[in-house]
């Protein structure tokens, strides 16, 4: 089954096109280009014509209505960088566009195995002659700065002149939507062109633009490779460069026009030198060879990340799209991370959140651990800024990671559901601990992860205090953003306990390995013993009366908001209710304690989870796209596989069905990761335990089975689940411990394992 | 003893001048003019040249860093209206300024009995000749739009030409300070001149300016009355009008130059017609007669508001200045209120806060009840907007008064220490109930106060809920702004209980009087019974362990911030600590529970107050100017009169000593009221009880006595306290109940009352 997403004969409405701009974006973790039409849209269409470099940002003013101490008044924002998408095509002087009279067979195909996005249509001239035009785009996984557009023109019966205008703009404006708190509200010219050069000999345009404030530069180089029928004509050079190729089109001859763009930024490249050598590299191979390499890269990816369900084709399309989006979105260089919208749009201003660690890292940890390690390295590069952030918040020690950031500066404007979400600290620690357990990668731990865990632990000890014998954490916000700045958020306290206990557990190893950071940070045995005490004394609120875990100290005492009685148009509630109103009620935007039931399942017995799940489910609106996937996983934990399926259905198709009505602003990257979690951690019941990988499969009625690959301790495993048996085999690597249901074995390449599927848990 | 504030031979530093601009401002509750030099300052001085009309505002953008639902993104701001202050004086072509070489005897006098502000100096020409120049300003209490400047020039030995240039600018810019959260951060041209006219026959300039957004107009009319030596010369007319008067100055002849300005606004006047008739009215009398009327007005004021301490002259200056500031600041027309900075500057953007009801109204209630009634009427005029505000906050019934406003729109940008201070509702209700008890003014209650009390009570019932048998109020902020959005703030809950109980008590009276609002609001007996139940069930948090009242549900469980160990430069803490840090600690910006001990003293026994006072005193930084006066009053309640005196000292001189370092932005109007409270409610121990006025005097060692006048139930009382006896007499009015210490009598004009002073309580 080929991995393709297609849209055939779609309606040319603005809404659909904006949505497709997102869905058909092409990205490689370094650059991302939205799927805009090369020829543009009619004037009354709103388009977010965008191209982004991961980690390239400017600093925008963030005016606070009241500027209290420590409120950031600058924020980092992703930049819409140089626009090289525009290509206009004229046949006998008539402009060829998808909007032309008589256009038919307008199709788009995202080929996730080839790593290209194709758009094609049959165009009809005023005289009634037809040509097929197609545009194939690629952002190269093997040469990250490279973006290509290949235009192919085949005449059915047209004969005449052809003229192709290709534009190269050195800067672009960010998209603006003043009515949505999740989007930028005002247009800003962040980038300005510093130098435009057209090299006639090389037929190469090079534009360098600089940011207003962050002192970054972006260089784009554009050149073309065209069929012999075409000849270079006019070149106009201004702040932009526009080149025209002219020729003749006849029946039976295919015109092929390739536009190569290279995107280089000053954070990673030497803009004086690197541009030229990249051009040379690209020119050394024909486009087909770049296509070939792209396919090979993805071939490896799909082998490592293989994941499929038997019995639900639409779901598989969505699963493929999710995993493909993740590999498209993830920064792989330690300088960048994964933005909430990947590289597909400017929603949330390109910020990195806890989404990475809790929703997306497990996928990389289990399929592409090199990338997971780079994501940890990224956090390490901003550790110093996290220390500064902790000082701003009044903490005398430790580091507090920013809730929203690109290069480390806190960019969240409303601290109650931003900076106050201290749990990002324990989320990062959790992901490091999980990564270490899954991979055994001691080097990453000693170089990056260990220091992060120590510094975030120090923050916890400064932020919390003993109240009698209890260690408490006050005035923080948990994952649920409808209940902010509370005392003893259960999720946070439990995550901190987990992190502290693990630090205590890892400390002898750090000592034994003579970890550099122990000296650097002057870690003492006493300090570690303080962590142990605090973890042991950690207060975890519980209602004896209701026999459930309390989301925080006062949550259960508030009146329940009857969300089932509210009109549908009131959702998401954040757009229709004042925060004070929401905070005053029992209502949850998303999984909070239920997320703890997943991440820390070993800390609970199933009956307690069941009671808590039933209670909090009634209160949760799932107004966050991070919610349904977690409810799905925990439904599986409590054995309600059909409910798990319903939540999974909801969660897995958010973008391809645009069910949250904002996919036009970019994909929901965390939800892509959540879909992976829902299948692998939910239905397959995978858990990374200290000494074993664990599977507890459950299949919903609709499916006959599922299969996927994971990497555990460096070994590549393949898992096939159906309603008869679970078959686990090892493709490469050394023997590992594996537990299926409650049976444990050592799995090796020689010894695969089949175990009967259990209908009842 | 004359009531004057003087500054003699003061330093011409920018700091001192900015401070004097505030201290020597002249205002009458309608207009306020800062004490700027007519001739201006040297170029490198920063001056806030200001003139304001109470209640005249524009609407400014208030950008929220994150625009959540219900966050206001507009705010009302006081306007710096037309500038008519400028008068330049030239002698033989040399400009006369206070900054000239050889200037001496530079003095300022604010005469609080005459109601004028005088500035004078002796100026020396380059040739060494001297003249005395003086500027006397008045904002008329008897003709509110009128502002006059009288310039007098007396030659010692100068003979030569004199030239006076008088300017009239129809608009001015608001003052800007980007570094202070309490001031506006960006310059805005709110007013633009729509029409400038100079009437040659009448020698009158008239400029009309309109606001950008609020659709208000301000008209200013300027004309002059000059000694016969001067003749009108050049008139320049542009957006501004500048007129020149020329003449000769000789020894022995005084030149007198009077500039009349009239300020009219479109909220109160018909700008087409009223200007002309005001000009006529002013011209009907010579300036001296306007001075005379001013003095008569103030004579009555000082008789009604008489207040003096024996044995502390500086304190009396400060007391006089406080009361004078209050009469200068208070809106007296039901359209306006009292801004936090009065009409002396643009600090807090001219907003009205709870300061009015809790800190300033008691003064008016007891000395000028007509004004107190107008302040209640003002709240009534914005009741409809308060209802709208309640809907924005999600409440299905009732009204929530805006925390900061001018004409009713919530203008607070940070809701945790703004909109969340719901207690403004019960503060307004409290002031109405107190006013009614002090005056017996049933008419005000039936027309305005009653409806406000019902609508605010409805809000409470919607905002709170029953938790078991307790009625609780969650997610609100009490007076202490270092602890925000908490559950069951003691002060709030107690104030609400008080308000609900009083509504229950007043209901039969409302029914008997067939109050219109009962029908209008469809008040039912059941509703009233619900208030009774909620009041009875009101939860008031108390720590059994510590035996003190808890500021809120979790306050006492937080770590204490050791404020005595913090460096001095860390204060005020709000400028040096992130709110989350402050919220996480036991630390108070101001009196919170201690304010409840004052306002609701009958609800506590003295021992409980003593314990609470001792506890909370250690936690309070008094970073708010509203704090010390309350600590002084409650120190008196617990019998520590010397501590009371120290707090009173601190609080009573904030502006004249500029101890908070921001008097340059305007007076601390609430503190002026607090000073009154400190003396009358503190040392004299006055309370307005349901059926009696109560006095419990205590005098600090330093004073030999004090005396003051109050109006109670329409009767004017005079109270003299010394360490021998308390002497209460009635000047006008019907007999009233009076209680001194624990003795109660009926006081009448015929029967005054002397009772021995009790050294020990």
TrEMBL record, chains A, B:
| Species assigned in the record | Enterococcus larvae
Q: In its UniProt entry, what is this protein called? A: Glycoside hydrolase family 65 protein
Name all Glycoside hydrolase family 65 central catalytic domain ranges.
321-676
| UniProt domain Glycoside hydrolase family 65 C-terminal: residue ranges | 686-744
Spell out the InterPro entries in the cross-references.
Answer: 6-hairpin_glycosidase_sf (IPR008928), 6hp_glycosidase-like_sf (IPR012341), Gal_mutarotase_sf_dom (IPR011013), GH65_N (IPR037018), Glyco_hydro_65_C (IPR005194), Glyco_hydro_65_M (IPR005195), Glyco_hydro_65_N (IPR005196), Malt_Pase/Glycosyl_Hdrlase (IPR017045)
- Where would I find the Glycoside hydrolase family 65 N-terminal domain in this sequence? 13-266
Which UniProt key words apply to this protein? Glycosyltransferase, Hydrolase, Transferase
Q: What molecular functions are annotated in GO for this chain? A: hydrolase activity
Q: Tell me its family.
A: Belongs to the glycosyl hydrolase 65 family.
Q: Extract the PANTHER family matched here.
A: GLYCOSYL HYDROLASE-RELATED, PROTEIN-GLUCOSYLGALACTOSYLHYDROXYLYSINE GLUCOSIDASE
Mind telling me which residue stretches traverse the membrane in this protein? none
